[in-house]
Specification:
This is 3-oxo-5-alpha-steroid 4-dehydrogenase C-terminal domain-containing protein. It is found in: Membrane. Belongs to the peptidase S10 family. It is a multi-pass membrane protein. With about 375 residues, this protein is mostly helical. The chain has helices at about 20-25, 30-35, 50-55, 65-75, 90-100, 120-125, 125-135, 140-145, 165-185, 195-215, 225-245, 255-285, 305-320, 325-330, 330-350, 355-365, and strands at about 80-85, 110-115, 165, 220-225. A two-stranded parallel ribbon has the order 1-2. The termini are far apart.
């Protein structure tokens, strides 16, 4: 049996893919090593003699199982993947590892790649490249938001030895690059078309955010470098890509009516989001170290009305953008804020010191009054 790909017979006399020998033959052609700048005359992919000498001297495969817990303790994200036809390193064991070290916020995941053996990049090259690019770019955040709604800042931060960066400092670093990107793309000016509206509103949105960080929000927590960089990168890249796409849309695709509704949603969302941030500030100016359930405005009906109005702003931007790419880029905040509101409600019910506050939190909706 070919343990590296059960669909195939053993090729070339051992368990390696036949393509390995093609690569080996090519690299050993006269002149190839010199062009590559390699400091050797011969390339061998599978060298049994060398492997035997390594084993004899104690230099063999090591188990990294014990490092998984350490990586998770350091707040790292882990992705384990394998082809479904790989026997020697199989997806069943990977899935068991995923379940064994499963965390509440889904920082370890196993991926099952169909129609692939040991060399997934060879058997499913396009899918593997797409997976790798998404993992590196962080676009899988839209999916991970469902499993990790409690990004460690605000009340979810302050973990000893992990969260060491003051939240105010982190938030300024998170929002400033997005604002700079907006000014680098174009000079803002008022014109009722898709790009200029989204461009101007995005600038207003991030200026408002920076002002709130500096003068409105009262922070009592810390976060960590990984969280700060991940959120900053997500905001910056999505803002940049969104504006870049809209800038190149043909003018005839623009609906004035839809954009007008979107503009209204955006303005209402920003104003009401700011108002509820002000209510949170008033709550935190009370001389007490204990968390209290917010009151006033729509806080009397839902746990996180400021999230709802932020989503309304993003909905307005989508109505003005009027393209599928913008929709996909804005999916992350919609998903993330929805589930974070739910997680915030659970946190209030579990951690508020006042019994009446805990009961009131239980009776409130998470995000939308009387609905969710």
């Amino acid at each position: 049996m070919n343990a590296r790909d059960v669909r195939k017979e053993i090729e070339g006399g051992d368990l390696c893919y036949e393509t390995v020998y093609s690569v080996e033959r090519y690299l050993n052609l006269p002149g190839v090593m010199g062009v590559l700048g390699a400091e050797t005359d011969k390339y061998t992919d599978c060298n049994d003699r060398l492997e035997y000498k390594c084993i004899k001297n104690g230099d063999f495969m090591l188990s990294y199982v014990n490092l998984i817990s350490q990586l998770l303790d350091d707040n790292a994200r882990i992705l384990i993947y394998a082809g479904d036809d790989n026997f020697i390193v199989n997806w069943i064991v990977n899935k068991q590892a995923d379940e064994l070290w499963k965390t509440e916020n889904g920082r370890i995941a196993s991926l099952h790649v169909f129609d692939a053996g040991c060399m997934v990049p060879y058997d499913q090259s396009e899918s593997d490249l797409d997976m790798l690019q998404q993992w590196i770019r962080g676009l899988v955040l839209s999916i991970s938001a469902i499993f990790d709604p409690s990004t460690p800042y605000s009340k979810f931060g302050n973990r000893a030895k992990i969260d060491t960066i003051p939240s105010r400092q982190a938030m300024i670093i998170i929002y400033t690059p997005s604002l700079l990107v907006c000014f680098l793309i174009a000079v803002p000016h008022w014109k009722f078309d898709s790009f200029n509206l989204v461009h101007l509103l995005t600038i207003i949105h991030f200026i408002k955010r920076v002002i709130e960080v500096c003068f409105v929000h009262i922070y009592k927590s810390k976060t960590n470098l990984m969280t700060m960089v991940a959120v900053m990168t997500t905001y910056t890249l999505t803002s940049f890509l969104d504006l870049l796409v809209i800038q190149n849309l043909p003018a005839h695709q623009f609906s004035t009516l839809l954009a007008s509704v979107g503009l209204g949603c955006c303005l209402v969302g920003e104003v009401m989001n700011g108002y509820h941030h002000y209510l949170l500030r008033k709550l935190r100016t009370v001389p007490s170290t204990d968390y209290r359930l917010p009151q006033g405005g729509l806080f009397d009906y839902v746990i996180a009305p400021h999230y709802m109005f932020e989503q309304l702003s993003y909905l307005g931007l989508l109505m003005i953008s009027q393209n599928v790419v913008s929709l996909s880029l804005k999916m992350f905040p919609f998903i993330y804020l929805t589930f974070r509101a739910k997680q915030t409600k659970k946190w209030y019910q579990d951690n508020l010191p006042d019994k009446k506050d805990r009961q009131d939190a239980k009776n409130r909706a998470c995000l939308i009054p009387f609905i969710y």
